[in-house]
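User: Fold this; tokens only.

Assistant: Input:
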Amino acid sequence: MKIAAVGCGWVADSYGKTLANYPELELVGAYDRNEKNLESFSRRWSTKKYPSLEHLLKDPSVEMILNLTNPRSHYDVTRTCLEAGKHVYSEKPLAMDPEAACELAVLAKDRSVYLSSAPCSVLAETAQTVWKALHDGVIGRVRLVYANFDDGMIAPKLAPWQWRNEAGVQWPAQDEFEVGCTFEHAGYMLTWLAAFFGPAKSVTAFASCQLPDKGITVKKMAPDFTVGCIEYSENIVARVTCSLVAPKNKSLTIVGDDGILDVPDLRNDVGPAYFLPLPLRGRVGGTVSRLNRWTKSLRTYCGIEEWRYRKRLPLVGQPRRKFVSAAKPVDFCRGPAELAAAVRESRPCRLSAELGIHIVELVETLQYPERFCARRQINSTFAPIEPLSWGN
């Protein structure tokens, strides 16, 4: 499928780096109103520069648009592309509120084109491994989930507005701070939970801005700390936290009657997932307690990581692929490839527009709880997501 990128900012390079994993996707062009970024992206990935979005959309060879613009432009750009009859894969979020996201879904249906949105890490090996373990009943009935996306106190001391990626593009600090870390990052956790447990039923949330001065001027600082409890079917409750304050922690812990599933880093597509059996009592429990005490002492003197009695689950799939970098083992092009496969096979896309709407409704509730009652009932829903064939 021939694709074109609209928006050549910070994230675009991550798509360029992982596109080679999918020979069925051909990048034929790009457009950005920032001429410098457009020139850099087009040169780096040897693709055509379009002089305007209108020129790009008039090209009949372009079948899919990657909407890689800033979040507050997603709705306008996606709408324009859908009206031109193009399939669209949008960076997260699909829109800044569920009503706008619904409008896009309706328009896509009317134009008989596909609409999908990031994040796509639920299609990665680590997520599929956890999903399989849940399906196989490894930890029994699920009771509780702790999901975290704390990025550390990056501002003001680390001056992130000075960061540049390998393409020389500056990190969009002002936009990130105004949009908020929850709109930017909560989707990584929420798509996993949606796949594992289905549509959420309600959300109870709290949000605040703990660091109102992050070192640069913004029009309005979004909350930099949010926490919410999301209720799913079968009385499953997930505590979800996002922040730009707490130390970096992107972990997922799922507690069941018979054990715990632990993912230390859900932003690592091929990272480890562990199983911790419960309950640890009697002789085994005592042995584990002693080992943990010993390794705590060793950690003090030798700097080693804490040992815990847990079993690493074998990753499902694990095909060879290119990632953004060794420090960021993430494949951004899984999502566009899934959309292209859905079009080719005339089937629903796993990252459907309905899923995107649902995620937007959850994120809006987490970031702006004051707009709703203390406990908001979630209205949106989506069809069950199918695991990948190699993940079964």
